[in-house]
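To fix ideas, we quote verbatim one protein's residues and fold tokens.
>
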Amino acid sequence: MARAIMLQGTGSDVGKTVLVAGLCRLAANAGLTVRPFKPQNMSNNAAVADDGGEIGRAQWLQSLAARTPSSVHMNPVLLKPQSENGSQIIVQGRVFGQAKGRDYQRLKPQLLGAVLESFENVSAGADLVVVEGAGSPAEINLRTGDIANMGFATKAGVPVVLVGDINRGGVIASLVGTQAILDEGDRAMIAGYLINKFRGDVSLFDDGIRAIEGFTGWPCFGVVPWLQAATRLPAEDSVVLERLARRGAGALKIAVPMLPRIANFDDLDPLRAEADVELVFVRGGERLPADAGLVILPGSKSTIADLADFRVQGWDRDLAAHVRRGGRVIGICGGYQMLGRMVHDPRGIEGGTSETPGLALLDVETEMAPEKTVRNSHARSTEYDAPLAGYQIHLGITRGPDCVRPSAIIDGAPDGAVSADGRIMGTYLHGLFGSDAYRARLLESFGLSGGQGNYRESVERALDEVAGELERCLDARWLGELLEVGRIC
């Protein structure tokens, strides 16, 4: 077995994903064979692993940071929320079933074997495995049958570093409180802690470190500053959308309705990085901006339910007015399905509604099918004759007259549809905006020049910057033992 360390948080969204990615890049830069691992993830931002099958988009990013091929074993259990209390369950890259929250709690012990099997697979041939927890071990109501935090750590014998987010306040209480409510066995797994997202003079927290050590006996392995480079990395969780600031006015305003079950919204990151683009995420209760030149309907984990909400928000009327004004529309995956005349679900795959009218901006219809398409793809844009590389994760087959004008050729086959006037386009290909040539041509069609260059390289630079910052701020002795000597603490 490779040596391993696990980062768990005092709560959700404390920055574990970025810290794991940074440690993976730091270890890779040091010449180690390092791999990420997350036993259980909950996200509708999924990726297609290099060995086929779905994993959390964050683990794909972490494998990129580790400079190692991604694998379904890096995230053996992926929960994809479909409703307020139910999720699709992906196990080792494949659909396992569906369950509501209470039913899943009973199911978790059955999944522990797959989690440990995947951890052994990831560990084989590695020098170091950096593991990311989910939520917080302080959620002791979920401890029975746990596979995401201490349940995994104790079974696999992996030491834990607890991460506290000082930016949200109360970090001393959150760390001390976590120690207080853990049982003795779980508490013994914690080797130390990190303070994350610190702004300002780190020495101002010296008394805080002494207080935490006095209460817990845990050593501090570092105070991590606010990592500005992390804003250039793909975000994992849709919770981040609530915090996305609207930038100053750009030459092109692009509006994106925030669907309740929005999926793979990191498709939009390359556009958000463009200086001449103002990307506006439109929340429920807001109108689609009348001055937008382009509206993008993103992916959805539940097309029919999100289509119903789209109408409740009045966005169907806003979108129709946008088109009448000469505006353009791009739909990706579920967004593409919404643009058609009808969505049929005769088998009830998405729930009880057997069919629902679409937005009728493309002359196509979709039928939901039980077989899920999951694959990485190479493609070419038919509109701009530009190379594309991305992935497909979708249920459903879309057909209709507008498909005679495909938006792309994917793996040699036509995909998507374009309206007769060329202003409405749909595709099943995620990641198309990450193609520098395609993105540049798209912006040029709105009268903008060029684009910001190589998006993938900008992500790589951001990962190196995060790794460099961690190398400067983490405890040198602990980091040296982790990366060189082979001891964790």
